[in-house]
# Entry
Amino acid sequence: MIRFPFLLLCASLFLSGPGREADGTDPRPAVEKEGPYAVLIQAKTPWKGSEEDARALVRRIFLGELGRWPGGIRALPYDRANRADMRRAFLREVLGMTEGAWYRHWLLKKQKRGATPPRRFASDFILFHMIARHPGAIGYAKLPARLPRKLKVLFRFGGRKKKAAPPGSFRRRR
# Structure
C-alpha cells in the first residue's frame, strides 16, 4: 500500500522539473562557457614556430606518431580525465577527432605495437606539477588566471560560448 503513494510522489517530483526562486530566477548553475583552454608546456621546452606548426606537432605527439620535440627532448603528453567539455574541445579542435575515434586509434596502436595512450590526470594542480617537473611534458587545461612560472602557453583553443535556450522555451530542430 505504501508503494503507490511513494511512486506517485516520485513521479510528480520528476515531472515537475526544477523549482524557481521567489524572484523567478532559475536556481540551477549557469552553463559555463566553453574555454578558454590552453596547451601548456614547460617553460624550458625549446619551441619557436607558428601556431599552425604547434597544432600539427601537438596532434602528432598526442597520437603517438612523434616521440620527441624538434630539439630532441622526449615528449611526454598528459591527457585529462573526466573533464567532458575540455576533453571534447581538445579532441575536436586540436586533434580533429571524436572520443570514439581517439579510443579506436589507441586500441589499434596497442594491438599492433603495444603503445599506450598518454597518462591521464583529473586535477589541474597535478597536471601543472607534472609539466613543470618534466622537460618535454605537454598537457592541456583551462587557462588559469595566473600561470605558474615554470609553464608557458603553447597555444589556446576553445573560446566559443554555448548558447542555451531560455527556461521555458523550445527550439525547433530542422
Remarks:
- The two ends are 47 Å apart (CA to CA).
- The longest helix spans residues 99-113.
